[in-house]
Amino acid sequence: MRLIAMGTLLAASVLCCAADSGAGGASGGDSGEARRDRMVVTQIEARGVDQPCVLDAMRSIPRERFVPAPLENDAYRDGPLPIGHGQTISQPYIVALMTELIEPQPEMRVLEIGTGSGYQAAVLAECVADVYTIEIIPELGRQAAARLDSLGYTNIHTHVGDGYDGWPDEAPFDGIVVTAAPSEIPEPLLDQLALGGRLVIPVGRGSQDLVVVTRTEQGLEQRVETPVRFVPMTGKAEQ
Ligand SMILES: C[S@@+](CC[C@H](N)C(=O)[O-])C[C@H]1O[C@@H](n2cnc3c(N)ncnc32)[C@H](O)[C@@H]1O
User: Candidates 1.10.1670.40, 3.40.50.620, 3.40.50.150, 3.30.830.10; correct CATH number of 14-19+86-238?
Assistant: First the structure.
């Protein structure tokens, strides 16, 4: 049986993938460390994210390594950035929020749908035991795998394919983070959620909500966290 309980819909509209607010931009000659610290203080902590591993991860991961070279000076801006193929690296705050919403613990195994640049996977990998991430665009998937490898991540497992079906051979997952929006939650992802696990997913075409689904003893509990704007999930989700 499924228990569906709708929760709080926050008023703030959050741009995560399709636009750039333009704040917090150029490096101004600061070190990467100083830029990351300013990003965490002004964009992440200021909006209420306080999970220590999330803040530590975002203070340590060189986000400029995840954006195209001409955009390196914009890597710590308060908005998404293009990464090619019509796709984006999400706004830093959204990466932090989605990571916090799965309630990360060191022993967890987490699935991400939409590897993109690999940045969200890297943040997750600082907080949990293993990250499994799927990207549908082969070139992006290959680039992200090489980037994560060069940064020394051994607990991120990459795959090129349609994430609609999840990763059945590695299921169940303690957390699932989806960074592209389907119009409805893919059933295979719900099936691959472990007891006590959380799925964080943008849902909708046009207007979208960030939805958190938790698997409990009683079934699936669902709440809406906040309005968002993500690129659409492609592949089977479009059929
Ligand atoms: C907002 S971007 C990813 C941001 C990424 N998490 C990051 O940190 O850079 C969404 C990604 O989802 C991918 N995507 C869209 N539909 C997908 C699907 N069905 N399966 C896997 N990846 C998908 C897109 O190609 C794109 O790279």
Answer: 3.40.50.150
